[in-house]
Specification:
The chain is built from seven helices and 16 strands. With 304 residues, it is of the alpha+beta class. Strand 11 and strand 12 form a beta hairpin.
C-alpha cells in the first residue's frame, strides 16, 4: 500500500511542470480578449455557452503550445443555473451551480514537440515521465463554482475560487491524459510514448496568495488508458488526494479565475477571458483522424 501511494503521488506531482511559471509570452495576455461567456444564473435569459468557451481558462494557464479539438456536430454547452450568496460584515460566500449538456467532446491537446522540448530540459534520465497529453471535457452533468473572500474597506475581495465538476451525484466530465516517453536513438519521440494514464478531475482550486500562484487539484480516479475505470481506479484516486500538493500555475491564469469569481459575486451578466497566448488556431476534428490519442479518448468516454 505504501508503494502504491508513493507511485500515485509521483504521477500527479510530476504534472507540476505543466503548470509552471516559465511562459513569459503570457505576461501581457490580460491586454487581449478571448471568448465572452454569458452569466444568467438560471434566469433562462441569454444564450448557453459552448463548453470550449466555458473551459477557456485551461489554455490560459498552459506554458506550452496547444490546440483545441472539437468533435464534429458538437452540441456541448454549459450555463449557470443558480446563484446563492451569504454576506456578513467580515466575509462572503457565493455558490453558483452550472449544468453541462450536449454530445461530443472538446479537447485541449498539448503539441508533443513543445511539450517534449520543455520536459527534456526539466527532467534528467532516459525517460520523460507523466507528460501532459490532453485535457478533455466529455459528458453531461452538474458542477458548481464556489467563491469566498473577505470584506476589506467595504469592498469584496475574492480569496479563493473552487470549481467542482461532480455535483448532484454526476461523474466529472473532465479527464487528463498523461504519458511517458523513452529516449530512442538519442531522441524522444511522441510516437513511442508508453505508460499512458487517464486522471479524472473532480475539483480545481484557485487561491489568492503572496507565495505565488498555485492550483489545488482533487481527482476522482487514476487508470491506465487501456483499462476501464473501476473501483481500483477510484481507490487510487482517493489515496492520491492525500499526496497531491498544490501545483504552480501561470499568474495570469490565477488572476483570471479570481476575477471570474468577483464577476460572479457582482452577478455580472457576462465575463470575458483574456486571450491565451499559447493556443494555436482551433479546429474541428476531421472524421478520418485515427491517432491513438483520439481512439483512447473515444474508448474511455464510451466505456467509463
Amino acid at each position: 500500500m505504501k508503494k502504491l501511494s508513493i507511485g500515485i503521488a509521483v504521477i500527479l506531482f510530476t504534472m507540476t511542470p505543466f503548470f509552471g511559471t516559465t511562459a513569459t509570452a503570457q505576461a501581457d495576455s490580460l491586454n487581449e480578449e478571448g471568448p465572452t461567456i454569458v452569466l444568467d444564473y438560471g434566469s433562462g435569459k441569454g444564450r448557453a455557452n459552448s463548453a470550449a468557451d466555458f473551459m477557456y481558462f485551461v489554455p490560459i494557464v498552459s506554458p506550452t503550445l496547444l490546440e483545441c479539438q472539437t468533435s464534429s456536430a458538437n452540441t456541448q454547452t454549459a450555463r449557470l443555473i443558480s446563484f446563492r450568496k451569504k454576506l456578513t460584515d467580515d466575509d462572503f460566500f457565493v455558490k453558483c451551480e452550472f449544468e453541462m449538456r450536449g454530445k461530443g467532446y472538446h479537447r485541449n491537446r498539448y503539441l508533443p514537440p513543445s511539450m517534449i522540448d520543455k520536459y527534456s530540459k526539466m527532467q534528467k534520465g532516459k525517460t520523460l515521465k507523466s507528460m501532459l497529453d490532453y485535457i478533455v471535457v466529455e459528458g453531461e452533468g452538474y458542477g458548481s463554482i464556489e467563491v469566498s473572500g473577505n470584506i476589506v474597506n467595504g469592498e469584496e475581495v475574492v480569496d479563493d475560487v473552487k470549481v467542482h465538476f461532480n455535483k448532484r451525484g454526476c461523474k466529472s466530465p473532465v479527464r487528463i491524459g498523461l504519458y511517458d516517453v523513452k529516449r530512442t536513438n538519442g531522441k524522444f519521440d511522441y510516437a513511442g510514448r508508453c505508460n499512458e494514464m487517464v486522471v479524472r478531475v473532480n475539483t480545481l482550486v484557485f487561491k489568492r496568495s503572496d507565495e505565488g500562484a498555485k492550483m489545488g487539484v482533487v481527482v476522482a480516479s487514476i487508470t491506465k488508458a487501456t483499462k476501464k475505470e473501476g473501483l481500483w481506479a477510484r481507490f487510487k484516486g482517493a489515496v492520491a488526494n492525500f499526496f497531491i500538493p498544490p501545483v504552480a500555475i501561470e499568474p495570469v491564469g490565477n488572476r483570471t479565475m479570481l476575477d471570474f469569481g468577483y464577476a460572479l459575486c457582482r452577478q455580472e451578466k457576462s465575463f470575458t477571458f483574456p486571450k491565451a497566448k499559447n493556443l494555436v488556431d482551433s479546429s474541428h476534428e476531421m472524421a478520418h483522424e485515427t491517432s491513438n490519442t483520439d481512439n483512447n479518448s473515444k474508448r474511455i468516454a464510451s466505456g467509463l
